[in-house]
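hiii so my PI (J.) wants the whole complex modelled not just the main chain, which honestly fair. so below is everything: two entries, each one labled with what it is. i double checked the lines twice but i was tired so who knows lol
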Amino acid sequence: MKSDSAVIFVVDDDRSVRNALERLIKSVGFRVKTFDRAQSFLDSAFCESPCCLVLDVRMPQMSGIELQEKMAFRGLNMPVIFITGHGSVSMGVQAMKAGAMDFIEKPFEDQQLIETIQAAIVKDRQAKQKQAEIMKIQKRAASLTPREYEVFKLVVSGMLNKQIAYELAVSEKTIKVHRARVMEKMKAKSLVSLVRMAEKIGIWGVSD
Amino acid sequence: MTTKATYKELQQRIKILENEIKKQDKYKEKLRASEEKYRSLVESTEDNVYMMDRNYRFLYMNPKYLLLHGLTANSYKGKSFGEFHSQEATKLLKKRIDHVFNTGKSITYLHHRKEHGKYFIRTLSPIFAQDGRVNAVTSIAKDITLQKQIEREVHSNRLELAHLERLATMGELTASLTHELSQPLTAILSNAQTALRLIRSNPPDINEVQAILEDIIADDRRASNFIKHLRTLFKKDELEKKSLNINSIIEQVVSLFKSEAILREISIKKALDGKLPFVKGNDIQLQQVILNLLLNASESMMKVNSRSKKIIISTMRENESHLRIGIRDFGKGVDQEIHASIFKPYFTTKREGMGMGLAICRSIVETHEGKIWLENNPDQGVTFYFTLPTTDEG
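here's the output for the full assembly
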């Protein structure tokens, strides 16, 4: 598996560690971007393709945990692999709780880091695919008229046409027309797939 | 006028003569008693006493000195110093004796008799003749071997204590020191494993492998230097003092402390005067003082907002003969009332720690003939200062 356009970010304040990690990660075919400080990563990191962050926990100016919080705030969602020169248990626990991919003590075997990176990329690719699908569905939902959107919500809540017609105080025939338009615009082949889409974008309809 | 004295007259004269003789006897007796007194003073003393003429021949030796050389009261007469001293010792003594004869002034010096392992403090003083010229020299030597021994023991206890305190300090820094070492090790391992990969690939990227090997060597050197540096601090003190550049001592300590500072989120600023003369001192001990003061400064800022955690180390000239080192923190400060007691042994405001850090700092600074004190900063925290004498040697 060539890792298509996956990007690995490395943040470590130590120049030679940074260079060594860059070489190692490049040697297995990933693209690498290195930063000496967490802030410069936050300022310039942008990644649409699958990516992950290899992070030294103990850096000047900002701790790794703090950085992770800031990343979440800025929407830089990606798996984080912590590496540390003095892995204290509490630090590791804290990092894992904050959603770290792994917590690796320096110095480490190349295989350990590479395997963790590969797993992180797989995870991020899935997350990004899911994210892309959601965006697609949201875009379709946005193309519905207000009335169609209302019908959409009621359909996925499990109501029959008759009930919807009653609810909206229009004829059943009108609902049928709206419903066909919703299926078409949402590109849903069946009621089941329409419900799944609704779930993905967080619509549960009205349930009395 | 009769030529013959009358019997009565004769009798009178005899009487006078008899009185005169009695008086003389009394004087003699007094003189004898006085001599006896002074003799016993010289002969009963524990000090080595002798008297010597211009040709370095002994005029007198007290029993203590006779005993030291295994001589008897009659056998020393006419003997010269050189007959039972080494050539080197004789030459040195002759020079000193000459000095006393020529200047008429006494001299005092420390004398180490290697063959007996004894230390003496000896004073050579002139004895003046009627005409004001020096006609002999006395030597009084006091055995101070015991005092020397005690002095040495005190000194070695102090060194031992300083060493223990240093070990304790290094213990406190273990986490950051390990990190500092794990950095080059991480780089080396990653680089080496990458190099293996590159060599196995087809075609192998020899240029990259070469660059990797160069980096590995550099990182290895970096780790070795760090260890070498650590080793000096772990080692026991040697007494020697050398001419030192205080700024480079500070740089070394700061590099040791770098990781610890990062861990504690403290930034260290240096304001070093690059044109300072050298100081004469023991590098390990001076590093210990600076390391201790850095640790104290960072501990004082434990509860301070991380953005203002800062230590400023400065060096400057104090005056013609001394330079001054300042370590400023932005911590919680020290009450004026305890400024003096803070340097006393076992004084501590910390929960852990034996309270010896600053006491040892003071003892080290004072054996370097410097001073150490602290001042409250006008805004926040305190500054510890110490001075060190400069040297011309470089």
